Amino acid sequence: MNRYLSLLLSAALAGLTAAQAVTPEEGRQIYMEAKAGKAEAQYRLGLCYLKGDGVKR
Fold first, then answer.
1. Is 6 within the bounds of a domain?
2. Greater model confidence, 41 or 14
3. Distance between CA 34 and CA 28 in Å, rounded?
4. Nearest to residue 17, comparing CAs of 26, 9, 25?
5. What CA–CA distances, in Å, run from 29 to 11, 12, 25, 26, 53?
6. Is residue 14 included in any domain, yes or no?
7. What is the structure's pLDDT at 14?
8. Which structural domain range is residue 55 located in?
9. Between 20 and 30 A from 37 (CA), which of 2, 19, 30, 44?
């Protein structure tokens, strides 16, 4: 039972990490939301800069 739950949890987490690339337009929207103080947008903007998705390098 524990092995099954571990496998299920691993599969779910693997799906969460497989994110799509951010387009420049989406990057601008995320930037504006982050600038407005939205914490989730600030986090996503950091990921965009880390990966180079949707932002200038």
1. no
2. 41
3. 10
4. 9
5. 30, 28, 6, 5, 13
6. no
7. 61
8. 20-57
9. 19
